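Translate sequence into structure tokens.
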Amino acid sequence: MKEKILYADRNKYEKREVLSGISFYVKKGEAVGLIGQNGCGKSTTLKLLTRIIYPDAGTVKLNGRVSSLLELGAGFHPDMSGRENIYINASIFGLSRKEIDRKMGDIIGFSELEEFIDNPVRTYSSGMYMRLAFSVAINVDADILLIDEILAVGDVNFQAKCFRKMQEIKNKGTSIVLVSHSMEQMEQICDRGIWLHKGKIRMEGTTKEIGREYLRYMGVEAGDVCADNERAEERFGTGEARFQLVRSRNLQGEETTVYRSGEPIQFDLEYKVYHELKYAVFGLSIFRSDGIRCYGTNTRVDGIPAYHLVRDGKISIIFDDMRLLPAKYDIDVCIEKEENDFADYQSHLNAFEVVSEEKDIGVMKMPHNWKMTEETS
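Result follows.
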């Protein structure tokens, strides 16, 4: 009574509808990704699927054992050892004592915490803590796996190990629902994407289609686009000259969509001239699937005089040593008629993938050497 009288403002609340009339299904063995801005209802959707909360209307139907990676380590006791916490956490997921005993070796081995497993988890670093929790959740043998923004667990090698495990689980027939802001993660794992916007499904389709539309929307909505707005448009320009065909080829001259890091790659840009263009500059930019511009250049930057376009033709750009690291990419191409004024600009063309056995991280491989100098006594 005292609090209600003295702190009346605390009793005020507003009703806000987080999700409204969404409906989707996930087949056995299918991976579906949920994307959208913060507050659009992605995590709420996963909480409905895990039955942490219940819908005001409608139904949620799941067939099989569910494992959720929403808040890793929920239920861990800081004073208990890693081994003891495995028993507690795995039992929350519905495993019996015998099942946990049988899987104990796999869980500890995957976490790479063998020498620390009998220490209290309060002595673990945050990375060790998350690795143990992930290892428990991933080894439950669930029919349905729900994941909320937690695939940045541990160091780079452990992250790669997690992705491989995710693919293995998916191939065994486990259904996966993944929430992530990383389009690269979505494309690597998911078969299908769902874009949630203000509590409703705005778009559903392949991860590539969803990713392009979502990144374009985010660029326009936030005003955070490149100087020429190239990521906000599919195609624009005055039309004196326009690209007819854009393709990529390997060293053997074969058209392909998969290249190895360090392999030569050639982009052929075929164009058609509709009106004489006395000043023409050709440009190309390479973007990673999450929208990061990895490289961009044009003929003016490279010191080539502007072209005088009268007839249709083709121009090629060759990268003798394409050092992009493994990921999926696409390109933008343009014909400038003067600086920042385009006869044609096309974006999101010629999707290709780079693969490699290298363990480097980042966007591109940079040549380097290590040199050690020992102090003399």
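Note: The longest helix spans residues 156-171.
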